[in-house]
Amino acid sequence: MSSSPIILQPSLTLPERIIEVDTPGFQEKFNHSPFMFSHNLVGHPLFEIPRLVDLANNLFPKGQIFCCKNGNYPGTKWEQLPRKKQIVEAILNIHESDSFIMFKSAHVDPDYKALLDKTLIELEDLTTVPLHREITWSIATIIVSSPHSITPYHIDHDCNFLFQIHGDKDVHLFDQNDRSVLTEEEIENFYLGHISSANYREENQNKASVNHLVPGKGVHHPVLAPHWVKNRDNYSVSLSINFCLKMCDLHARIYQVNYYLRKLGMLPTPPGQSALRDRTKIFAVEMFSKRKPENHDEVLHSGIKRITAPAKLFQETVRSLKR
To answer: What angle do CA 122, 250, 175 make, to 5 degrees?
Structure first.
């Protein structure tokens, strides 16, 4: 993989280095624990408000943009946040519109795709992990939010590198392996598609590492690390480079089977405690998973959806007969 600069247009070039190479932690902490890093994207034209308005207009017809009113408490669930329809207006008035806007697939725009690709090349070098073989899905997400905005407490399947471009914020990250913070049941529910399954508990707040991000700084989120974010006094523009890893996808299969075993009254074995049980559960779901997934949902859920579809159809039929 080459690390040479990628030319977007005659007047628009990516930095020679996006991530500073002198940041410690990449090899030792990657996908194990959070760490901060430095980058060179501050002031880049791709993150100026007029360019983001153009991107919003491009993504809106594809359903790849999410806009809502800011939350005011980390324990608020995503579905409780009122949606906003005037997305461009919210971006143009981001200083005072009390908005949270997520560009969920910025990389459908070729300029941001070039940025995603170059960042992954650099991350492969920095982590010494052969990411080009391990990544099953990658995505560039941009988050634009008003002053004092709170991103609700949640977990993600993706490995995440969060780049702060404008404004400053505090990222509260918790240990994904601490079952007093994140339970097996919450993870199982998450992998069945319940994105708000993780529950914020104030008594655990002192277990968080608080990472203060200013422009030019970023923080790495391991897979499933619970987190919530609060902006400070200015509006924020951030870039998330997210990607799925093969091993984490396999763990997701185990959690999906465990969800149904628990529903049957059993106490399922978490991943990593029995190689034989893990292989059996993975095999059961992998048999039905799409070989060439076309989106993030298919990476995670195509197998378990195909397995459970007949039962769900039967349940719906019974319900309709009872009406």
So the answer is: 65
Is the pLDDT assigned to residue 289 strictly greater than 70? yes
Banded model confidence at residue 3, pLDDT cuts 50, 70, 90:
very low
Average pLDDT for 214-237: 98
Q: Is 218 exposed, middle or buried, given 0-12, 13-18 or 19+ CB atoms closer than 10 A?
A: buried
- For residues 162 and 218, is the Cβ–Cβ distance under 8 A? yes
> Where residue 25 falls among pLDDT bands split at 50, 70, 90?
confident
Signed CA dihedral, 259, 263, 264, 265: sign only: positive
Smallest CA-to-CA distance from 1 within 133, 112, 106, 105 is with 133
Largest CA distance in the chain: 66
Alpha-carbon gap, residue 117 to 72, rounded angstroms: 35
* pLDDT mean across residues, the chain: 92
Residue in this structure with the two tokens 């009390």, named with its chain if needed: 98
